[in-house]
Amino acid sequence: QHGRVKIKSTAQQEEEKRKEREKKLKIYVAARDACFSKRREGVWDDEALQLTQQLLSSNPDFATLWNYRREILLHLETVREEDELQKIYEAELSFLESCLKMNPKSYGSWHHRGWVSARLPRPDWARELSLCDRCLSLDDRNFHCWDYRRMVVKMSGVPVDQELQFTDRLIGSNFSNYSSWHYRSTLLPLLHPESPEPPSPCQQLLKEYELVQNAFFTDPNDQSAWFYYRWLLGRAEREEMISCVYVSREEERVVVAFSRPVNVSAFTLIHIWNFVHFLTWTQICDLPPGTISDITNEHNLTVHWTEKHTHRDCALYTGRNESWCRDSATDQELFSELSVEKTSVLQSELQSCNQLQELEPLNKWCLLTIILLMRALDPLGYEKETLAHFQTLKEVDSMRSAYYSDLCSKFMIENTILKMEYAEVRVFSISDKKLTTLCHLDQLLLVTHINLSSNLLQRLPPQFAMLQCLEVLEADNNCIENLEGLYHLPKLEEVYLKNNKISKLADLQPLVSCPKLKHLDLRGNPITETTNIQSELAELLPSVTDLLKSLIH
Amino acid sequence: MASEDLPSEFDVVILGTGLAESVVAAACARVGQRVLHLDRKSYYAGSWASFTFNGLLSWIQEHTAGSQPETEELHDWSNLLEDGEEMICLSNTNSAPFSNVQVYCYTSEKDEEEEDEARSPEALNTTEEEGGRGGGDEDGVTEPAESHTAELKEEEEEEGGERRQEGAADAQEEEREEEQEEEQVEAFPSRPQVSWGDRGPHQLQKTCGLNILHCPITQAIQTEGEGPEPESGQPRPSAAPSQSEPVKKKISYAQLLKEGRRFNIDLVSKLMYSRGSLVDLLIKSNVSRYAEFKNVTRILTYRHGNVEQVPCSRADVFASRQLSVVEKRKLMRFLTSCLEETQEEQAFAGRPYLEFLRDQQLGDNLQHFLLHSIAMATEDTPTEEGLASTRHFLRCLGRYGNTPFLFPLYGLGEIPQCFCRMCAVFGGIYCLRHSVHSLLVHKDTNRCKAVIDSRGQRISCSHVVVEDGYVEAARKPTATPTRFLSRAVLITDGSVLSSESDQQVSLVTVPPSEAGGPSVRLVELCPSTMTCMPGTYLVHLTCQSVSSAYQDLSPVVTRMFRTPESHDQEGRPSVLWCLYFNMADGSAVEVEGHDLPSNVYVCSGPDGGLGHQHAIGQAEAIFHKILPEDEFCPPAPNPEDIIYDGETCTSPLGEEGEERGEEEGEGEGEGAGEEEGEGEGGEKEEKEQEEEEEEEEERDGEVQEKQSLKSEE
C-alpha cells in the first residue's frame, strides 16, 4: 500500500535507449542533409546558422560545418550593422562555450573561437581569459586552450608580470606541467631584457632556482622541472664568429673555421679571393697558384665576413710554411652547455643536486644534471666523477645507454682537446676511452697526429675532413666500417686501421682523394679475406708503398 | 485518530535516526523490506544531529535542565499481549549520552547599533509571543536568549561591553560525577547551576540568562583562586575594557541569534575519508545525490605554539615554505614508499610507530607531521596501526582534492537524513516524536514478534533495530565502564591560520601537551560549508575524555584562541561563544550480549573516530544479520527507471517520495535546516559533485597515480 517501487527491467531500458538513439540519428541526418544542400545552393541565412548550430552542438568536430558557418558570418558582416554583428558574434561565443563543454579538445571549436574573437567588433578579453582559466583548471595540459590563451594574451596585451603570476599559480597547483614551465621560460627574458637569457643572477633568478628545486626535490622523477632547470642554468648559444683561420703555403690554401655551422654566402679575403666551397663548420678556400707560394714573402690575410661585419687577420711570415690565428678552446666556455659567469651559483646548485643524489642515488635526471654542472665548473677536475656517474646512468637508464655513451664520448673529446691545448701540442690522442662517436672535429683543425685506437667507433664521419693538417691517423681496434671522412685531406700520409670492420674495396674509395697517403694498415679487417685484394688495392691506391705489409697478418 | 494509525505490520522496526540506524533503514527498504523508522526526538539524527544556533540553545536547555522523564503517563498495555508472549519495556527516559554541558559567551550581548532595535517593542513582542514554546522546537528557543538580552541591557551598558561567560552544566550528571571523582569537583568549583534542579524549564532559562550576566563563575573562581583553571586570568575590571576593544567589531550575541539559522552545528565532529566506507556507500547506493560536499582544504597542526600547515599532497609539499628541499624529498619518499609493505616494517611489528619513524631518520618536523597529522596516532600506537592509518590517509588523497577529506554541506546531520530519505523513497515510514513502549517477545523462541508503540498500538514485526539509548540500563551487558568523548564547539571570528582564501575548511591536529594526555582534533568550518554565518568560523574540538570536556579542552582553546583567559594572544581569532560537553563514545558501547531477543539488534551511538567506519560497519553487520542473502545498499535506480503505481505520484522520485514518507509519519518534525539546505544549495553544484564522484569512480586507477595532480574539479 505504500507504493513499493517498481523498476523497469534492463530490456525495457535498453529498448528505450535504442529508440532514443534512433530518433536522435534521424534528426541529425536530416539536419546534416539540409545544411549541405543549403551550402550547395549558396544560401547564407539565419536558418543555416540555426541548423549548423544544432548539429555542431552535438558534434563539434564537424569541420565542414564550421567552415559553412564562417561563410555565413562573413556574409552577414557585409549586410549587418556593427551592433548587430557584435550580438551575433557574442552569441557565437556562448554557443562555442557549450561546444567546448561537449569536447574541450575540439580542434574545430577552438579554431572557430579564435576566428570569432579576432573578428568581434568589441572583444571582451577578460571573459576569454577567464574561460581559459576554467578550461585549464579542468585540464592543465589542454594545448588547444594554451594556444588560444596565447592568442588572447597577445591581442589583449596582458602585462608580462601578470602572466608570470599566472604560471606561478598553475605550477603551484601542479608543477608537472611543461606548458607552464615553458611559458615561464618565454616570459622571464621579456621581464628582464637587460640579461637576455638566462637572466643574470638577480633576485628573480634565485627565486627561480628555489622554485625549480622545490619541484625536483618533491618529485625528482618528473622531468618537466628538470628541463626548465637546464634552461635556467643554460646560456645563450655561442655567437657566430670566425674561430680559426689557417693558411698553408704549400697547399696555397686558407681554411676558415666558424664557431657554429653557418651558411656563408659572402666573405672576402684581402689580397686574393677565390671560389667559395661550402662546408658546415669550415670554409676551405684554395688560393690561385703562386699567390703565397714564395717563402720569402710575408703575407697578411684578413678574412672578412661581411654578413656579420666581422673579420679576422692572419699573418704568414717569411720563411714559415703555415700560419694560423684562433681562439683557444681552453676558454672552457666553449664546451659547456651551462653558463660560467655565475660560478658561485653553479657551485651551490651542484651542492643541492649532490644532496638530492645522496637521497636518490639512482635518479637519472639528477645524475645528468650533476654531470652538466660539473662540466660547467671544472671539466677536467671532475672527470673521474663524471665517468662514474655516466656508468650509473647507463645502468639505471639502459634504454638510453647509447645516448649516454655518445654524450660521454663528447665530454671525453672535449677534455682531451683541453689537455691538448694546455700542452700546446698538435697531437690529439684519445685511446681506450670507449668512444662511440666523434665530435668537435672543428677544434682539431691544426692537429697533425690523431690517435683514436681502441675505442668503439663505427665510422669516421664527413666532418673528419676538417682535419686539414692531419698527417697520421691511428684508429686501430675500433669497429670502423666506413671511411667517408677521410676525404681530401691534403697532408694525410699514414692511416692505421688494424682490427676494424672494413669489408669492401668501395669503403676505401675516399682515400683516393688524399694525395700524400703512403702508409695504410688494414690488418685484421674482413677486406683482407677477399681474393685479389692486393692487386685491387694497388690499383686503387697506387701511391701507398707498403701495401703488402698492411695486408699480412 | 484511527486515520493516523500506523499499519499494523512491518518487517523491520527501527528506533533512533542516527547514522547506523538510518543506513540499516535505507538498506532494508531498498531491498523491499517494510520499514518503520521512529525517533522519540523531534529532530532527525539523534546524537548525530546538526542544529541551528537557536536549535542548539534549546538542546542545551534540554541537557542542562536535567533529563527528566518524558511526561508520559504510565500505560498498562499488557492487554495487547498474546499467548506465550512477555513484554520488555524500553527505556522511556532519555538517558542521553551527554553530560557536563557548559556554555560561555565572550562577545557582547548586542551590537551597539542594534541596541535600539533590540529595545524596540517588536523585538520584545516576538519573543513574548513565542514564549510558550515546546520541546526542542527551534523557533521557541530564541525566546530565552532574546528575553534575557532585553532584560539585561542596562547592566550591559554599565559593564561597557565586557565579556561574560555562560555556565551551565547538567546537574544530574554532575552529581553523579561528583560521587565518582573528587577531581571533577575541584575542576568545577563554581556550580551555580546545582540549584537549578527543581525549577521549571521556562524559569530556568531566564535564570540561566541572569546567571550568565552576573558572571558567577568567574567570581567563584576568583575567590577560590584555584590554579589549574586558566580562567583565573578572567576579565579583571581594569583589564577587560582594553581587551574588549578589538579593531574589528565583534559579532554580538544578538547577531548570532538573529543569524542563528545560518548555523548547522554538529553534535558529532567527523570528516568523511574520500575513500572511506561512508563515501563508498554513498556512491554505491546513489544516496550521494541527496547531499553536497566540500573538500577539507587544509590539514594543519599545532606545534611550538603555532598553527602550521601539514604538507600532505604533492602540491602541498612543493609549495611548503617550512620544509627544506631535503625534507621535501624525504617526506615524498616516505609517503610513496610506505604505500607498499616492506621487510623493514615487519621488524617493527608490535613496536611503536614513533620508533619506526625515528628509524627512517626523517627529522623532527616530518616525524611530527607523519605521527600526529597523517597517521593521527599517539606516541605508543603500534607500527602496524600507524602505517595502516597512514596508508588510508594517502589512499584518500587526491580523489577529490588535496586533502583526504570531505565534509557535507549543512553539517554531518545531513548524512543520516539522506539515508532516511532513501528509505522513505523505498516506502519506509517515518515518525518523529514517536517511540516504542515495549517489545513483545515470544517466550519459547525468544524472538520479538511485535512492538507496542508509544500510542499503544501493537505493530508486528520480524526484526527490531534499536539505538543504544532506547535500551534500559539493566538489560545492557556492560560491567565495562563506558568511555566518553570531550567535545567543544566554538564560534570564532577568524581562522586559526589566516590565508589568501577565507573559505578554508581545516583539520587541525593538536598533539597532547603532556605525555599521556589526549590528542585533540580540531575541525574548523568556514561559512561556505553552510554551517555558520558569514564572518564567523565554527570550530569543533574532540578528544577522548580524561576528565570533563571543559577540563580537557579549554586549555587548548585558551592556547589557540583569544578568550578572556588567554594572555598575549594578539592575532589569534577570538572566541565569541563556546559550548563544552561530554558524550558517550559509541565505540565503547557494547552492541552484543544485551538481554534482548535474538532478533533485536543494538546500534551504538557515534564513536570518537574521525571517519565513519564504525557506524557503517555496524549498520552493514546488522543488515546482514537481518537479511543474510541480500545485497547491502545496491545502487538505487535512476528516477526515470522507476514505474509508479497509477494512483501515486507521476513526478520523479526525490522530493515526492520523501513527502510521502513524511506525510504518513509526522511531517512537522523536519530535520534541522534540511529545507534550507536544498533551497540554497543549488542543484547544479549537487550534480557536479555527483558526476565528479562517478567520474572518479571510473578513473580509479588513473587517479591513484595522479592523486595530488588534480585539484578540485
From TrEMBL, chain A:
Keyword terms, alphabetized: Leucine-rich repeat, Phosphoprotein, Prenyltransferase, Repeat, Transferase
UniProt-listed InterPro entries: Leu-rich_rpt, LRR_dom_sf, Prenyl_trans_a, RabGGT_asu_insert-dom_sf, RabGGT_asu_insert-domain
Any matching Pfam family: PPTA
Reactions that this protein is recorded to catalyse: geranylgeranyl diphosphate + L-cysteinyl-[protein] = S-geranylgeranyl-L-cysteinyl-[protein] + diphosphate
PROSITE patterns: LRR, PFTA
One Gene Ontology term of the molecular function aspect: Rab geranylgeranyltransferase activity
Residues covered by the Rab geranylgeranyltransferase alpha subunit insert-domain domain: 242-329
Enzyme Commission number: 2.5.1.60
Superkingdom, natural source: Eukaryota
Region spans: Disordered: 1-20
SUPFAM superfamilies attached to this UniProt entry: L domain-like (SSF52058), Protein prenylyltransferase (SSF48439), Rab geranylgeranyltransferase alpha-subunit, insert domain (SSF49594)
Record bears the keyword Nuclease: no
Record flagged with keyword Phosphoprotein: yes
Similarity comment text for this entry: Belongs to the protein prenyltransferase subunit alpha family.
Role: Catalyzes the transfer of a geranylgeranyl moiety from geranylgeranyl diphosphate to both cysteines of Rab proteins with the C-terminal sequence -XXCC, -XCXC and -CCXX, such as RAB1A, RAB3A, RAB5A and RAB7A.
Record-given protein name: Geranylgeranyl transferase type-2 subunit alpha
Source organism: Myripristis murdjan (pinecone soldierfish)
Gene designation: RABGGTA
UniProtKB/TrEMBL annotation, chain B:
Name of this protein: CHM Rab escort protein
A GO cellular component entry from the record: cytosol
Domain RAE1/2: 485-607
A molecular function GO annotation: GDP-dissociation inhibitor activity
Location relative to the cell: Cytoplasm, Cytosol
SUPFAM superfamilies hit by this protein: FAD-linked reductases, C-terminal domain, FAD/NAD(P)-binding domain
Species in which this protein is naturally found: Myripristis murdjan (pinecone soldierfish)
Region of interest called Disordered, as start-end residue ranges on this chain: 108-202, 223-248, 631-713
Lineage of producing organism: Eukaryota, Metazoa, Chordata, Craniata, Vertebrata
Biased composition (Acidic residues): 171-185, 655-680, 688-700
